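Let's do one together. I've listed all components of the complex below, 1007 residues spread over three lines.
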Amino acid sequence: MLAYTVRRLLVSIPVLIASTFVVFLVVVNAGDPVANFAVSRQPAPSKAAVAAFARHIHADQPVAERYWNWITGVLHGDFGPSVQPNLDIGHDLFTRFRVTVTLVAAAMIIALLLAVLFGVFSAIRQYSVADYVITFFGFLFLAMPVFWFAVLLKQAGIWYNQQTGSQFLGTIGEKSPYLEVDTTWNQFTDHVGHLVLPTITLALVSFASWTRYTRASMLEVLGSDYVRLARAKGLRRGRVMTRHALRTALIPLTTVVALDIGIILGGAVVTETIFQWHGMGEMLVQAVTTIDVYRTMAWLLLSAVIVIGLNLIADLLYAVLDPRIRYD
Amino acid sequence: MTTTSSEGVRAGAANDAVLEVDGLGVEFPTEDGIVRAVRGVGYSLGRGESLGIVGESGAGKSVTAMAVMGLLPATAKVRGSVRFEGTELLGLPDGRLSDIRGKGIAMIFQDPMTSLNPVYTVGFQIAETLQRHHPDLKARDARTRAVELLGTVGIPSPERRVDNYPHELSGGMRQRVVIAIAMANDPDVIIADEPTTALDVTVQAQILDALETARAETGAALVLITHDLGVVAGHTDRVAVMYAGRIVETGSVEDIFYTPRMPYTLGLLGSLPRLDREEERLTPITGSPPSLLNLPPGCPFSPRCPMRRDVCDSDEPPLRPAGRDSHLSACHFAEELVDTGAEQVFDTAGADSEALARFADATSTGQPEEDSL
Amino acid sequence: MTDIQAPGSPGTEVPRSENEFTVKQRSQTQLILRRFLRHRAAMISLAVFLLILLWAFIGPHLWHYSYQKYTPDNSQAPSAKHPFGTNSSGYDSYAQVMRGTQTSLKIAILTALGSTLLGAVWGAIAGFYRGIVDAVMMRITDLVLTLPLFAIALVISSRTGGDWYWIAIVIAGLTWAYVSRVVRSTVLSLREKEFVEAARALGASDVRIIFRHLLPNSLGPIIVNATVLVATGILTETALSFLGFGVQPPDTSLGLLVSQAQTAVTTRPWLFYIPGAFIIAIALTINFIGDGLRDAFDPRQQRVRQ
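Okay, and this is what the predicted structure of the assembly comes out as:
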C-alpha cells in the first residue's frame, strides 16, 4: 500500500510539470502585458520605462527560460513578479485560498451528503413519484446556469434580510468588514451567514450530477446477482441495502467527485464574483484582465495541484475500498 | 385460472412434501403488454427428493424458482400457492420470508462470476449467512464453520481460501463457495438454477459432485433447473419439462427418457449429440419458443410440432396421465407416441433413449481434470 | 427474432402453421429509433428544442425590431408591442433574446461538433493502433483533462476576443478529451470483433477500417456525448459571457443578457428571467434528448429486485 502510494505520487509529478508547461505556453501567449502597459498608462510611458517593465516581468526572456525560472522559483516560494507593483503573488494566493477553500469544501460536503441521500432513495423507490420528482429536479439543476441561480439567490437573500430585518444572510463578501474586533462567536456566525448562499449555489450543480450518478450506480448494484444472492441467503432488506448495495455502489463515486473538482473550481470563480468574495475567483478574473502572467500561473498551478492531488486521493481511496484493485 | 391451475407433479406421498407449488402463475407488465412468464406450474417435492426442471431459456424455469424464493421484482404479479412445510409463502411479509430464505430454502445461481459480492471475502459472505440464521453464533465459530464448509465443497486449503476475495478464485471455485453458502444453514430445499451452465465443461461435473456432497450432508431436497438433459439424468429422481411457462411433461427419469409422451420432450432427446453411433444425425426442433406476450390459444408448441393437427391450434391440452400414474403429459395425442422415437416424429436419425441415458451417466460420473484456482 | 424456417425434409410433410410466433424482423437502426420515439421526455424535449432553434434562426428575419437598434420605449414591461419588454436603453428585449439565443446556440453546436470530431478521430486512432501510439495520445488526453476547463477558457478567451467561433473553438479544444476517452474504449472492444477482422482479411486499409467500420459502429456513444456537449457548451459560453470574457457587445448572447440584467432583477425582472429561462430550456431539453438517446442505444433493463 505504501509502495503503491509512493509510486502514484511519483507518477503525478511529471503530469504536473507537463500540465503546467502547457498552461504556461497558453498563458504567455494569451496576452501581451508589455503592449498593454505601453498603451494603458497616462501619460504614455517612455521607451525605457516600457523596457524596464518588460525586464521586470521577465517578458524579455525566451519562454522556456521563463518557465524554468518560474518553476524553480516556485519551489523556493517565489511565484514571480506581478504587473501590479507591491503585490506578493504567493501571499495573495494563500490568503485567497483560505477564503475559497471553506466555500469549496462546504459545498462539496453538502452536495455529496445530499446526493447520496437522494440518489439512494431515488434508486430504492425507482419509478415512484419521489423518484420522478428527484429525477426532474436533478435534470433542472443540471441545466441551471450557476451565475443565473447565484444572482437569483442573492436577490432572495436581500429580500429575506429586508423582510426579517436580520443581517444573517450575507450577500456581499466573505465576511462583514467591520467585525474584525468583535467576539469570536459573532465572527463565527458572520462567517456562516456569508457562507450560506454561495455554498448553496456552488453545491447545486454537483449535487444534481452526483445524485444522478448515485442513482444509476445504486440501480446497477441492486440489479446485480450478488445482491440477489444476499437476499437469497436470508439477509434482511436493510442489511442488504447498506452492507451489500450501498457499500459497493458508492465506490465509483469517489472517482467522479475527484474528477469534478475542476468544474467546481470554475463554479467557484463565478459564485465568488457574484457574491463579491475576495477569494481565488476574484484573483483569476483580476489576473486575466490585467494580463498578469505570473498571477494567472499561480492560480492555475494551485488548481492543478488540487485537481491532481484530489485524484490521487480518490485513487488511493478506491484501492482501499475495492479489493479488486491491486497495490503492486 | 383455467384447467391448468391445479395440474402438477405429485410426489408419491403428498403429506411428506417439503415444498408444494400449486397453480403458480407469474405475469410481468411491460411496455408491450403483459408477459405471462409462468402459467400454472405445480409440483410437489418430497423430503430429500430431487426434481429436475428442463426446458429452453425463456420457458419460465428461473422465474418459477424466483417466485418460490419471493425474489421477483415488485412489478411481477404472482398467483397460486407455494407452501413450504405447510406454510403458505406467497403473501408472506418479507421479514418472515427472509427467515426461510437460506435456512429453509437455499438457492444457487447460474453465474458464479457475479454471484459473490466483490468487496467482501468469501469467508465473510459465508459467515454472514450463518450468523443471520444463528444470531448467537460467535464470529470465531462462524469463521471456523466457514472453513469447514469450504473444505466440504472441495476447496483445497480452505483455511487460506477463507480470506480470499471472490476475484482471487476461479469460476468453479466461486461456484463451490456459492454451494457452501447454500448448505451453510442445513436447508430443507436447495434450488440450483443452471449451476453449471456458465462453467467450463471440465469443471461442470466437479460442481455437480460438490452439489451432491452438499445434499448428502444436509439431506436437502433438490430442484435442479437446467437445459441439459444429461445433467438431469444423472442427478434427479424426477423430471419436469417446461415449455412456454408450463410443465408439458413430467415423470420419473425413466419415464421421460424411455417413454416420452410429448413431442417437445421427444425433440429435446433427439437433439442431443450421441457418441455411441456412427453416421449420427441429430433431429433438431426447428423454430424458436413463442413469445410469452399475447400467447394465442392452443398448444404453444404447435407451430414447431411435426404432429400438429387442427385441434392443437384451438385447445391447449391439459396435463394428463400418460402411461404410469406419476407420468403426465400435455399433448392431445400422447397415446400415439407410445414406443415412438424422435427420428420417427421429427427428422431422420433420432435418439436411442437407452444410449442417451448411458451417455448422461458417463458424463456426470466421469473424472475430468481438476479445475484450477 | 429469428424467423421460423419450415424444415423441408423429404418424406415428412411439415405443416406450416398460420399462427407462427414470429416478430417482424427489425434492423438495429429501427429498434433504436423506436426506443427513442417511445421516450416521452426526449420527444417533447426534441420538439421544444427544434422550436427554439427555428425561432432563434428564422425569427430575427420576421421580427420588426433589430437587436441593435434603439426603440423609443425605455424600460417597458412585456406588452403586445414588446413581448419580452425593453431595457433601460430602449432595446427590444424580444429581438435581443432571439439574437442571444442564436449566438449561444451557434457556439454550443459548433463546440459539440468540433469537440466530437476531434475527440472521435483521436480516440479511434489511439484505440485502433494501441501500443505506443495509444500511450502517447492518451497521455495527451489525460493532460487536457487535468486542465480546469473554465479557468483556461477564461484565459484564452480574454485574448481571442468575442467572436463567436473563437469561443466555440476554445471550449471544443478543452472538451474533446472526454469524447476521445469514450470512443477509444469503444474502439478497443470493437477492433476484436469479427467484422473488423474480416475487413482486414479482405485487405482494407487502416484508414478505411477506422472510418468505415470502427467509427460508424461507435456512433451510439459518440452521438450521446455530442448531445451532452451541446449543454456543456451553452453553460460554459454563457458563464464566460456573463463574466465578460465571452461574446462582446454589440453582439449579444444569453449569458451577456443575464449579466446586463443583474442589477435589474427586482426593477425589470423580465430582462433577467427570460434569457435565464432560455438557457435552462435549452440545456434541459438537450439533457433529456441525450438521456433518451442513451436509453435507445444502450437499453440495459435495470430492474430492482425486492
